[in-house]
């Protein structure tokens, strides 16, 4: 069984660290991923979160591209309701001209923030969700060889044919990706409940398109991989603390790990956190390999995309390296 491995990076701003640190860490992470044969690195658009520095996703990707030479880079994803499709076509068209053949454009339907911040992003808040498919089609039209949105032209953008992915945590995005013949990535790293149903819906309803002739699906999982089980579990307490903060509406930097999780999270909070993070891969490479094999067999995914929610940068890069060494890893032939 061979499945490509990729990375989703939230460019975390850790406790005691700056945004500048987070940006440098993301570039180092991409370099590490490239050196160890990962397929792609994606960054996610979130706004107003003290623990995430990838709000200006296209700008971050320009820096990631300059720090690497061959790995695919892209958005996982751009939250399209926040933006005019023309703006995204120009941004990702520019990236495609800077780094030819390396850019992916993953799109999400949620705002990626609270409603007050969404309004501050200056898109019309009325009927956003209803226009999502139209916006995706408009974006495709700007990026196509022949302009399909005349008389408007995306320069840069037209003719770049940047591959578009649809991202989601529900059946809606699975159905739309199938209808439009686009690759689909499911956010099982934080919303696992509909994973299997969404994949089944996507595959059952897929219609070939100019971009894709058969279904292609990836799924996200968190990973904390270390030389010992104790070390992996210790570093994963950062992710558990982060989800506790989200449940409490506490907007804080990405938390440091703790030896005693019960000292910072009440016992009543843990069942919900554990349920949300149930697909996380935490442990030694040998232990993670077993769980990962089961996940791939259960889902039949074409690609795995890992996030590494680890506060310590050295430990994070070590986890990337150890995960790449798992036998399931398929070394890539770069095109």
UniProtKB/TrEMBL annotation:
The keyword Hydrolase does not apply. This is Luciferase-like monooxygenase. To bacterial alkanal monooxygenase alpha and beta chains. The gene is fgd. Residues 5-303 form the Luciferase-like domain. The keyword RNA-binding does not apply. Coiled coil: none annotated. PANTHER family: LUCIFERASE-LIKE MONOOXYGENASE. Transmembrane segments: none annotated. It comes from Marinomonas gallaica. The lineage of its organism: Bacteria, Pseudomonadati, Pseudomonadota, Gammaproteobacteria, Oceanospirillales.
């Amino acid at each position: 069984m061979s499945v490509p491995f990729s990375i989703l990076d939230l460019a975390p701003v850790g406790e005691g660290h700056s945004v500048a640190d987070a940006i440098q860490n993301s570039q180092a992470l991409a370099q590490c991923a490239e050196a160890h044969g990962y397929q792609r690195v994606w960054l996610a658009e979130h706004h107003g979160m003290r623990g995430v520095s990838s709000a200006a996703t296209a700008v971050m990707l320009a820096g990631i591209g300059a720090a690497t030479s061959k790995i695919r880079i892209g958005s996982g994803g751009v939250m399209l309701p926040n933006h005019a499709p023309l703006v995204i076509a120009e941004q990702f068209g520019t990236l495609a001209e800077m780094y030819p053949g390396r850019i992916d454009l993953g799109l999400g339907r949620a705002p990626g923030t609270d409603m007050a911040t969404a309004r501050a992003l200056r898109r019309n808040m009325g009927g956003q969700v209803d226009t999502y498919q139209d916006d995706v089609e408009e974006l495709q039209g700007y990026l196509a060889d022949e302009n399909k949105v005349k008389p408007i032209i995306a320069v840069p953008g037209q003719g770049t044919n940047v591959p578009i992915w649809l991202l989601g945590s529900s059946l809606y995005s699975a159905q739309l990706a199938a209808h439009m013949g686009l690759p689909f990535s499911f956010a099982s790293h934080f919303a696992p409940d509909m994973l299997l149903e969404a994949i089944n819906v996507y595959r059952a309803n897929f219609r070939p398109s100019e971009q894709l002739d058969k279904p292609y699906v990836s799924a996200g999982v968190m990973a904390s991989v270390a030389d010992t089980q104790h070390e992996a579990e210790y570093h994963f307490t950062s992710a558990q603390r982060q989800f506790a903060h989200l449940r409490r509406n506490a907007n804080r930097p990405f938390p440091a790990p703790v030896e005693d999780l019960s000292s910072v999270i009440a016992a009543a909070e843990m069942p919900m956190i554990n349920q949300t993070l149930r697909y996380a891969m935490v442990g030694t490479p040998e232990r993670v390999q077993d769980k990962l094999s089961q996940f791939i067999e259960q889902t039949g995914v074409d690609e795995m995309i890992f996030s590494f929610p680890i506060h310590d940068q050295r430990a994070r890069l070590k986890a990337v390296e150890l995960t790449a060494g798992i036998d399931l890893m398929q070394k890539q032939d770069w095109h």
